[in-house]
Design goal:
By secondary structure, the chain is mainly alpha-helical. It has one domain. Helices cover 78% and strands 0% of the residues. It has helices at residues 2-29, 41-50, 53-77, 82-103, 108-127. Helix 1 (2-29) runs antiparallel to helix 3 (53-77), helix 1 packs across helix 4 (82-103) and helix 3 (53-77) packs parallel to helix 5. The longest helix has 28 residues, at 2-29.
Length: 135
């Protein structure tokens, strides 16, 4: 049980790091316009409403890759219940994504893609682990 908890925690941490890195790349490709105050929620809401579709797709990509890598790590570290633990990681990351969408206005397509991407990506990450590993 302890190994399973460690696997999930490590998966969530790695997933969060990957999400941050991919979103950082997205911000480099689609920089925020001058005058956006990232500490001001209203300013962020205005930007999110008018952000290019490519910038929004980068967020979906970040969530998918974060869930994939987090699910992979959880499955790799765990000795049993590989898929279930990967899906727990994907579920936790999905909760974070939903919290993000509740905070920052998002179009309907973004909500649909955002909710649908996490669990399949985490499952795919678990499938990348061919057999139980000993770490």
């Amino acid at each position: 049980m302890g190994r399973s908890i460690v696997a999930v925690v490590l998966g969530i941490i790695l997933g969060g790091i990957v999400v941050g890195l991919v979103e950082y790349v997205g911000h480099m490709i689609y920089p925020m316009p001058a005058g956006i105050d990232t500490s001001n929620p209203e300013s962020l809401k205005t930007y999110a409403t008018n952000a290019p579709t490519g910038a929004k797709l980068f967020v979906i990509l970040a969530w998918a890759l974060g869930s994939l890598t987090g699910g992979w790590l959880a499955a790799f570290v765990a000795r049993q219940s590989h898929t279930q633990l990967a899906l727990i990681v994907g579920g936790v990351l999905m909760i974070f994504g939903i919290m993000n969408m509740l905070t920052i206005p998002s179009p309907l397509w973004f909500w649909i893609a955002g909710i649908l991407v996490f669990l399949p990506a985490a499952y795919a990450g678990a499938r990348l682990v061919r057999s139980p590993q000993v770490v």
